[in-house]
UniProtKB/TrEMBL annotation:
Key words, A-Z: Membrane, Transmembrane, Transmembrane helix
PANTHER family: ALPHA/BETA HYDROLASE DOMAIN-CONTAINING PROTEIN, PROTEIN ABHD13
Superkingdom: Eukaryota
Organism: Ophiobolus disseminans
Transmembrane stretches, start-end: 12-31
High-level lineage: Eukaryota, Fungi, Dikarya, Ascomycota, Pezizomycotina
Pfam families: Abhydrolase_6
Domain AB hydrolase-1 span(s) in chain numbering: 125-318
Protein name: Alpha/beta-hydrolase
InterPro entries: AB_hydrolase_1, AB_hydrolase_fold
Length: 403
């Protein structure tokens, strides 16, 4: 019969090997290029054998989606999709079918663009997707279809950030902000859509881009105010994300290191991508609560949506973002601790049974909502009615403010 030491020795050797490999991985995270691969996952395209210039592969009608390119101020080329609402397509399908398919060299010459620009009732969703993949990956096409069915006239503009898909360049925090601003500028200036007819939608890492973009425009003089912002599966900042994120929902990134706070703090000093979403969200709300914006009664309409079974980014991140947003509406002397707000939520939130719950907080200049659903995982939730409803509510935010 083998001795205990004979059994334990290979087990301990295996454990030591696993620990050594993990320690080496953590050390490698101090290398900027590897950090970018881990944070953005931009080389994991998930559409390796599909042509993103043929949207019909994802079930879209002929020329319901127009692929085109956008040029950024710093010389990058972004791949983009313009998705037509189904009812708009139905009314114009004969003419749309007659146009050439594939990558469009000049989007402004296309009928789809004219249907967006020349219709005073057209509404637009600016869409910022999450890490990994392209704008045709995973649940994103289903999400576009769900959002474009929100009403009869909701168009969608989506991009692949620099370094993603066929877009040129290499991703970075500043670079993704530039990409986001480029898309919004195109919508405002080239398509001529006023901000009150635009909802900014984002998921996962895209929520950091959306918050940075809306923060940038909110701080203009006068502020540029969108109809609303819908953030699905957001995160508070990269430091907290690193502590909680699980690759593919199973492999922990830095949560084992979190047991050693000093080591985690040291490692965070080497991580150059910060995405301080909780600070930017609070700063935007604080600024808009005090800003004079003419006759507009609701200056911001922000919805945070998260699934309890999101194993990639835990829904505590939405709790943290909501807490910072709420405190931004209060005087410093009246600020709430995280636990204080949780007690208030326990009493005031709207229970929705198997659908989860919702909490709404009114600030001087607008409203912030947190919606926690019980099911939806990290990506699938994008195609759920709770998300489409939030976008629809954002488009009607000014109507609700007047009621």
């Amino acid at each position: 019969m083998p001795s205990i030491s004979a059994v334990l020795k290979p087990l301990l050797g295996t454990l030591a090997g696993i620990v050594g490999i993990y320690a080496a991985f953590v050390c490698l995270l101090t290398i900027p290029t590897l950090q970018d691969h881990v944070i953005f996952l931009h080389k994991v395209t998930l559409t390796w054998f599909q042509d993103v210039n043929v949207p019909e592969q994802w079930g879209f009608l002929r020329n319901q989606v127009t692929p085109f390119h956008l040029k950024t101020p710093d010389g990058q080329t972004l791949h983009a999709w313009h998705v037509l609402p189904l009812e708009t397509y139905r009314k114009n399908q004969k003419e749309l079918r007659e146009e050439p398919t594939g990558l469009c060299e000049d989007i402004e010459d296309r009928l789809s663009f004219k249907l967006l620009k020349e219709d005073p009732t057209a509404q637009l969703v600016i869409y910022f997707h999450g890490a990994a993949g392209t704008l045709g990956s995973g649940w994103r096409p289903q999400s576009y279809r769900a959002l474009s069915a929100t009403s009869t006239n909701v168009h969608i503009l989506a991009i692949d950030y620099r370094g993603f898909g066929t877009s040129t360049g290499w991703p970075s925090e500043a670079g993704l902000l530039t990409d986001g601003l480029t898309l919004v500028k195109f919508a405002l200036d080239e398509a001529g859509i006023p901000p009150e007819r635009i909802v900014v939608f984002a998921q996962s890492i895209g929520t950091a881009v959306a918050i940075a973009v809306t923060h940038h425009y909110a701080l203009q003089s006068p502020p540029v105010l969108f109809a609303g912002t819908v953030l699905v599966a957001p995160f508070a900042d990269v430091a907290q994300l690193a502590r909680t994120y699980k690759v593919a929902g199973t492999v922990p990134l830095l949560s084992p290191v979190a047991f050693f706070p000093k080591l985690l703090a040291l490692l965070n000093r080497f991580i150059r991508t910060k995405f301080p979403s909780k600070e930017k969200l609070a700063d935007m709300i604080r600024h808009l609560d005090s800003a004079k914006t003419g006759e507009r009664r609701r200056k911001y309409d922000i919805t945070l949506i998260h699934a309890e079974d999101d194993y990639d980014i835990p829904w505590i991140h939405s709790d943290v973002l909501f807490w910072h947003a709420v405190n931004a509406t209060l005087e410093p002397s009246a600020s709430l601790t995280f636990d204080d707000l949780e007690k208030i939520k326990a009493k005031q939130k709207t229970p929705l049974g198997a659908g989860g719950w919702e909490m709404e907080w009114e600030g001087k200049g607008g409203v912030v909502r947190e919606q926690i659903v019980k099911h939806g995982l990290h990506d699938r939730i994008m195609s759920y009615p709770v998300v489409s409803l939030a976008v629809s509510q954002a488009f009607h935010s000014q109507d609700e403010a007047r009621d």
